[in-house]
Amino acid sequence: MTGTDGEIGKTVQSVETSLRVVDVIRERERAGVTEIAVALDCSKASVHHHVTTLCKHGYLERDDGEYRLGLGFLSVGGQVREHQPLYHLAKTDVEDLAAETGEQARLIAEHDGRGVTIYRTSGDRTDHPRMHLGSDEPLYCTAAGKAFLAELAPEARDRYLAETALEPYTDATVTDPDALREELSSIASEGVAFDDEERYEGVRCVAAAVDSPDGELLGAISVSGPTERLSGERFRSELPDRLRNVVGVVELQNTYSTWTEQFSQ
Fold this sequence. Notes:
The chain is built from nine helices and eight strands. It is an alpha+beta fold. About 50% of the residues lie in helices and about 20% in strands. Helix 1 (about 15-30) packs across helix 3, helix 2 (about 35-40) packs across helix 3 (about 45-55) and helix 6 packs across helix 8. GO terms for molecular function: DNA binding.
């Protein structure tokens, strides 16, 4: 999995604090100086300096005494997404998938042990909580996340399970490492992962990983919807089969594109 451990030496403390301020606001969607100071265990004066600087450069906006993320992140996020191979490979296929199923379809990339939404599009029946672009989620309780974990070597899976607290988000969240390990083995065999109300009550999700021609994990494609629509054969058979087909097409297109580039040089 991607990450930064062991890759970075000295850091700039003030920059780290600014990034932590941003994280607090991102998690809460909006927050005031006092709330941020309490969350970070630092002075309100220090927080005020950081939010003022971030506002000046467009990365935060002040609204009625609280701060929220600013438009500066939109342009940055757009550039980041443009560098994601999966976005260019699968965007059209994901749009077709959402239109065909009527549900929300997403492209998710793995970063630092989290699943990050890099693109989402909704069908005409989408009515459940929508993930914002750039929002991140744990791997162990989401369909895309489990698809990522299933791609790991057994030793890497064991390391993840040993280092990760499997906290429950709903009554259905799998918190037993042995049970999750067994499920991941099944996902690796079947090529598709399920989230059966494990992250959000009333919402189910199906996902499959997308690999490059050399076996590198590019991300995952998912379809999610309310339990009353994602149930029975549709949840356990029809959508998984459709996802496998979509992933197969995306991977084949990528292989052809790679082959064409190699032989045109």
